[in-house]
Amino acid sequence: MNDESLPSAAARPQVPVFCQVGSAEDTVGYRMRRIVNLLAGEIERRMEPLGLTDAQWKPLLRMFASGDTTVATLARGCHLDAGAMTRLLDRLEAKNLCRRIRSVEDRRVVNLELTDEGRVAARQIPDVVAEVQAVAAAGFSQQEFDQLKEYLERILTNVLPFGGDADASAQRSSASVSASEGSKK
C-alpha cells in the first residue's frame, strides 16, 4: 500500500472518542465475532443429538419454515454460493433429511422437500436455538433485549455500504446458482 492510497489526516473523518480503541478486544467487531463463535459452538453442540452441524440446521429450518422451496431460493436465503449449497444438500440428503426434485415444468429449477425425518428434526431446531439465545439474554429485560437487537440492526445498516454484506453476497451467489441450474437444462 502506498502513501497516495491513504487519505490525508485532514481528509479523514473525525473519529468520536468512544470509537477509539487500544486493543482488538476493545472493538465492537471483536466482541460480536466472539459472541457469534460462542453461540454457534453451543448451538452445534446441542444439535449433535439431531445429527446436525451449525451449517446444516439453518437451511433445514428455512425449508421447514417456508415449505417446499428451490435450491436457488434456499441458497439465496442462506447466503451460500451454488457449490456450497450443493455440498450442504448432498450431506442433508445423505442423512435422509431432504431430497432434490427436478421441476417438470422447468428443468432448470431444482425443487427441495423435507423428508419425514427432516421434518421431525426441523421441528426441534427452534427450541434448541431459543434455549441458547435465552442463556445469552440472561439478565436482560424484554425491553433491553429488543433495544440490543435495534442497536445491532443500526450497526448493520451503518456497515452495509462496506460492500461485504451477506445480502449482497447472497444476491451474487443466487445469480451463480441460477446460472448453474440453467446450464443443466
From TrEMBL:
Record Gene3D superfamilies: Winged helix-like DNA-binding domain superfamily/Winged helix DNA-binding domain
Pfam families on file: MarR (PF01047)
GO MF: DNA binding; DNA-binding transcription factor activity
Keyword Cell cycle included in the entry's annotation: no
Keywords, alphabetical: DNA-binding, Transcription, Transcription regulation
Keyword match Repeat: no
SMART domains associated with the record: HTH_MARR
HTH marR-type domain location: 25-157
PANTHER family associated with the record: TRANSCRIPTIONAL REGULATOR, MARR, TRANSCRIPTIONAL REPRESSOR OF EMRAB OPERON
The name this protein goes by in its record: MarR family transcriptional regulator
Native organism: Xylophilus rhododendri
